[in-house]
Amino acid sequence: MAQTITNLTILGSTGSIGASTLDVVARHPGRYRVLALTAQRQEDVLFEQCMRFKPRYAVLLEEAAAARLAQKIAAAGLAVQVRCGVEALEFVSSLPEVDAVMAAIVGAAGLRPTLAAARAGKKILLANKETLVMAGRIFMDVVRQHNAILLPIDSEHNAIFQALPHDFCRDHSGNLATSGVSKILLTASGGPFRDTPLSELQQVTAEQACAHPNWVMGRKISVDSATMMNKGLEVIEAHWLFNAPADAIQVVVHPQSVIHSLVQYVDGSVLAQLGNPDMRTPIAHALAYPERIEAGVEPLDLLKVATLNFIAPDFARFPCLALAYQALRAEGTAPAMLNAANEVAVAAFLDKRISFLAIPRVIEDVLAALPVTMVNTLDDVLNADAAARTAAQELIQRTASLSPQSSVLSPLQS
Ligand code: NAD
Ligand code: MG
Description:
- By secondary structure, the chain is of the alpha/beta class.
- Helices cover about 45% and strands about 15% of the residues.
- It has 2 domains: about 5-150, Rossmann fold (3-Layer(aba) Sandwich); about 175-275 and about 315-410, RNA polymerase sigma factor, region 2, helix turn helix motif (Rna Polymerase Sigma Factor, Chain: A), CATH 1.10.1740.10.
- β10 (about 260-265) and β11 (about 270-275) form a beta hairpin.
- α4 runs parallel beside α5 (about 110-120), α11 (about 230-240) runs parallel beside α14 and α16 packs across α17 (about 380-400).
- The chain starts with 5 loop residues before the first strand and ends in a 12-residue tail after the last helix.
- The relative contact order is 0.10.
- The structure holds nicotinamide-adenine-dinucleotide (NAD) and magnesium ion (MG).
- Nicotinamide-adenine-dinucleotide binds near residues 109, 154 and 218.
- Magnesium ion binds near residues 155 and 156.
């Protein structure tokens, strides 16, 4: 039987997940067609991708970069339409011909285009965890109302999806308790600073924070992994994806990153998904679901791995993990504010404006300063996001002006 072609929009195609997605797609030319590619401002990379995959649309967030891309595309004689702005990202996420949308923009910027894909009832391959952290209830409601299909790309959530009962996620209203699930066990590598003496954490650089021991990722998620905020965001992501209360989600540090997560059942069974740490596995799983396709990933050699270790997370070393659990339990706008303060703090750390240890301090102070309110509309989320960003920026600026020499290296004074 001839294979039907799946038409794809890849949001954030120039990033780490975007590139891995195109790598898997290129291995199956008769199976997938790229209809749209998007990025923020990397017109050179996007141009190369256009040359190779010949999409119908290429979208850049920034207008000037889009104008430069349009010139190059015209000079190369390619039939690619270039657009710009958030509306164009929403447009390519909801095109009638598109079957599946890879949501791989980093950060809060992914929310609107991913929501547009859900409203259009698409199959969504969700890498942008921030969508669920910010607006989990609203997003899941839209997914259910419009019969969108949500397939997790985050390796842990993809592992849990695979270990849950077959039909659990079919209409996104599965119930863990009635499915015999007692706990979700979310594994974490512990990042590059798992064993760094606490006294040295004060001095660590952005380059050290981005040198993850097991995974190659974008810079924002790499810093999140180093603070373990990434795991905190993933706890919130798991809450919404699997309808799981905070108490049913346990983080287990597993330094080898071979077991990608586990599901514990009431009969004592624990089901896990294993594999080499390579995002092409969850990407290929979600692209082909429920079938399986080759992903270019080395098979797991258990004899080479030999040992698997499990350690309880150190909440004192990684306060961001505790802050994320706290925000999840506070509900309402708290997770959106946590996410926004984290994005501002991580950007400031990458810019060498604050120290590594200042990241959780900024988030904690922002959460303490702003009231948590209920979320009824998307505007409630966007307003909370904006307020937390402003509060975090002000805090960082105030601290820098108080002690200009030492602000890069010392934690914030509250
Ligand atoms: P990245 O920084 O490598 O790439 C981000 C992509 O988003 C780029 O194409 C960039 O141009 C685009 N982008 C950035 N800001 C934008 C904006 N304001 N508007 C439009 N586009 C914008 O990031 P990544 O590591 O590929 O991560 C992407 C998402 O996937 C994140 O939400 C991350 O948490 C999640 N994720 C990544 C990994 C991984 O291994 N990299 C694993 C699990 C989940
Ligand atoms: Mg992950």
